[in-house]
Amino acid sequence: MRFIVVGAGSIGQRHARNLRALGHEPIVFDTDAERLAKVGALLDVETLPTLAAGADRKADGILVCTPPASHVAVARETLDWGGHLFIEKPLAPSGREVGRLLAEADARGRRILVGCNLRFFKPLQRVKALVDEGRVGRVLSVRAQCGFYLPFWQPGTDYRQTYRAHAAQGGGILLDAIHDFDYLRWIFGEVREVLGTVERLADFQTDVEDFGEVTLRFTSGVIAQLHLDYLQRSYRRSCEVIGERGVIVWDYIDRRVTLFTEERDRWQGFGEPIDFNHNEMFVEEMAHFVRCLEGREAPVVDGSDALRTLRVVEAAKTSSAQRSWVTL
Prior knowledge:
By secondary structure, the chain is of the alpha/beta class. It has 2 domains: 2-115, Rossmann fold; 118-277 and 301-327, Dihydrodipicolinate Reductase, domain 2, CATH 3.30.360.10. The protein is built from 9 helices and 15 strands. Helix 3 links the parallel strand 4 and strand 5 (84-88). Helix 1 crosses helix 8 (280-293) and helix 7 (178-188) crosses helix 9. The longest helix has 20 residues, at 303-322. The chain is globular. It starts with a strand and ends with a strand.
């Protein structure tokens, strides 16, 4: 199949490489002509002189890998090209224009998939399976976190020049770490109420939040505490699921899922690191996109699903501003 990748940053390059490894033809465009030339030579792929030039390339799929603030505009511009859309997370900085995009895509028979690669991360899939199997009984509460140091995130790049540092471009830790809101919804269901504390604590010379402490009350009765920050000098991502009969602990870094259960009056832990390369989830994400285009699978995260997660993020920000619970 032929795919047009709009945006030649790190994630656009990753998707282009993975599509090619899967036997497909990626064509890349970026508004930065110098970067586009370098990426084209590095990946040995065709590049487009303008975005409009992609209209004649008869692509099966278009990948929108630009800064979040331009996602909706790029998606709408490419809707009539005949291909289905893969849009990187977050779907948009806010839900204001998303409804119109989804309606236009539906009217044209276009599918929209949204990049939530943690759905393809095998250790996290194991967490969901353990919860669904009832291995810890009824889930009561969850503690999750994601943190990293913003200036260290992309070595060799001035973080102040990236979209992460600018609210107008869709930056800030809550949108950046929307994966964590997504997987919590995926495993525990829909969110009913949100209480958030969202702050800018560090002197990063940005206009975005670098800290978030969010309480989520799910319709199932589960209560989750989600901590997010740009402050930790080492990357950390983990989750602890507390059930009536046990505890599940997931750690992203060592790919370990540990199950603690009460048997014969003592706690027993089970868990070994899962053999899984970091890039595999991105490869499987692209393979899933291809299978969706072939009609063999339905999107794991479609536009409507991504919009529901975006509404949770918006509710957290509103809650922080109002200093009160927000009901969805």
